[in-house]
Amino acid sequence: MNVLKNFRYIKITSNCSPFLSAVTMLLRVTAAVLPSFQTLAIAGLLDALPGALSSKSMMGTLGPLSVLFAVLLSNYFIQALNHFLMLKLNMHLEDRLKPALVMKINNLSYEHIENNETYDLIERVGEDIPAAVQSGFTNLLDLAEIIINILGLIVIIGRSSLLAAFFCLLLIVPVVIIARKSGNEAYQANAQIAPHARRAKYLKSLISSRESSSERTLFGFGEKINTYWNREMDRKIDLDYKTDKKIFVRSKSISIVFTLLLFVMALLLLWVVSQKKMTAGTYISLIISLSTLIHTLSWQLSEMLKEYTNKRLYIEDLERLNRLSEVSRSDLAPEKGIQEMPFESLVFDHVSFTYPQSEREVLHDFSLELYPGKRYAFVGRNGCGKSTVIKLLTGLYADYHGRILLNNRDINSFSAGERKAYCAVVYQDYAKYQLTLREQLKLGNPDLSDREIEALLEQMGLEHKIQSLPKGLDTSLGKLEADSFDFSEGQWQRLALARSFGRKAKLFIFDEPAASLDVLAENQLYETIRSFGTTRQMTTLYITHRLAAARLADEIIVMDEGRIVEQGTHAALLAKKAYYAEMFTTQRKWYQEKQVMEP
Fold first, then answer.
1. How far apart are the first and last CA of the chain?
2. Distance from chain centroid for Cα 73
3. Most buried of 67, 137, 368, 504 (most Cβ within 10 A)?
4. Using CA atoms, how far apart are residues 399 and 401, in angstroms rounded to an integer?
């Protein structure tokens, strides 16, 4: 049943720390039982006081008084110990759950990585998974404590009259039903508020973040964004007010109903007292305890049940994430021993491929042979399949038809670690890590020495820039730290190239690496790659829609609708005056027009 899914929080916390989870649950059960002993102690004290006053001897009150203070001290001790245990439990959850989440995301099949719904799911689940699990665990214990409190009082009443206990239990049932309904309504109201709160949070980041400060100043949109933020906040506040007003009115109404129910219980128990089945002290103590309990039910239970619903939805998201398919052993570190294997050939043998949840064949009977020491450029319109070739080559997708052979060996027989070491890829959306320069280059290349790092930076044309940095290789890059230094787009691009070249791979792949650069910077970048490749005698694959870069290739593969439509050198393809020549002429006109328009 969905309503019981929340019990998975107990399983998760127990898996992370069996001892702490068991002790915490034992303490909470003990804390839940204490109010019943407190009720009995107060009842005993009230029953003993008249006799003690008449005999002028307080000895008869020492027993119940001692029990009462023992209960109070135990409750204080349990609360303090429980707070300490929850802190320790959170540490264990942090140690186990966050690495497990990272590992799960690392191992996800690439079809999920390219799915926007997966990103939304990861954002919902992974924002603070230890806190969410601990909150779900605590919510269950809170509800269990209330249930035990109710049962404890019913047992005390049942000692005097089973019939009265049964009727009191029946009277509490509507309390739980009304509170549950209030909790569900509050949850639905919060669901309406959430989109406005999320948009307001995003707009606030645009107003205050360093990343958007340049455009905010240049275009002067701060006031406009502030207007949008105020609008979302007004909507959020209006919904908050209506929700709080509704919950307040309902809570007050519930309190009146509960007071009437308490009055009925008081009359019922008074009848039990008149039948000499219950002492006056027990009666007074029970009325006090029941009034406190009903107050708790009227104000807190609806919030607990709302949280219970929230946590049920969260655990469903967590289960959904855990069910996503994974690629086995994809988290392996690069196995650098494979780099000793020279590159001899790469063959695509009648390869066809369709993306998951799609019916369109992106590659159709694709065949191609690549050989060492050459530069290949894949060109074509968007969606022609050129980037898909790289995804299959690097193992992001394996469910294709046909064969891909590296040195006459099926590429699927290589481990993920071997592929990572043999192929180095620079993507269009390369990462800008907010780390020191040394740390940047050592990501994926932990064995690089400072001398090798300096040589890489020199080959990338960054040596003078590095010399000007206040801390050299130990300078933090980006905008995270107060003393960080931010690179230009071209310098970040060259740093990504240096990180890739540090891999010492045999096959280098560049997927639109210059898409965000201007023409001059693009030419400089490709000249750097060409020079580096010549020195290393490396095999290079370019994926590009800019044909000016394709001219640097030894061979150009022109693709359309998942097929190779032309193949050859730049000069040979222009001479054919076909598909490539038409594309090149169109782009040349665009460049010429752009130069004319520039002042």
1. 70
2. 42
3. 137
4. 7
- Burial grade of 425 (CB within 10 A; 0-12, 13-18, 19 or more): buried
CB 499 within 8 A of CB 425: no
pLDDT tens-digit profile, the chain (599 residues): 555 788 899 999 999 999 999 999 999 999 999 998 988 888 888 888 887 777 777 777 888 888 888 988 998 999 999 999 999 999 999 999 888 888 888 788 777 777 777 777 777 777 688 998 999 999 999 989 988 988 888 888 888 888 888 877 776 777 667 666 665 666 566 667 767 777 777 777 777 766 666 666 666 667 777 887 888 888 888 877 777 777 667 666 666 777 787 788 888 888 888 888 888 888 888 888 888 877 777 667 767 777 787 788 788 888 888 888 877 666 667 787 888 888 899 999 999 999 887 888 999 999 999 999 888 999 988 888 888 998 898 888 888 999 999 999 999 888 888 888 888 888 877 778 888 888 888 887 788 888 888 888 888 778 888 888 878 888 888 777 667 788 877 788 888 888 888 878 888 888 877 666 666 667 777 777 777 766 677 888 988 877 766 777 889 999 998 999 999 998 899 898 888 888 888 877 655 544 434 44
Q: How far is CA 150 from CA 146, 180, 405, 444, in A?
A: 6, 16, 70, 58
Bridge partner residues of 510 (DSSP): 426, 542
How many CA atoms, within 13 angstroms, populate the side-chain half-sphere of residue 172? 21
Cβ-based neighbours of 143, under 8 Å, separated by 6 or more: 304, 305, 308
Pairing, β 539-543 against β 555-560: unpaired
Q: Which residues contact 294 (CB under 8 A, 6 or more apart)?
A: 175, 258, 259, 261, 262
Edge-to-edge strand ranges of the sheet holding 375-379: 423-427, 507-511, 539-543, 375-379, 555-560, 563-568
Burial class (CB within 10 angstroms; exposed 0-12, middle 13-18, buried 19+) of 266: middle
DSSP assignments along 169-215, one per residue: HHHHHHHHHHHHHHHHHHHHHHHHHHHHHHHHHHHHHHHH-STTHHH
Tokens representing residue 357 in the block? 């949840």
User: Please, are residues 310 and 132 in contact by the beta-carbon 8 Å criterion?
Assistant: no
Which pair of structure tokens corresponds to residue 220?
């002067």
| Alpha-carbon span 491 to 525, nearest angstrom | 10
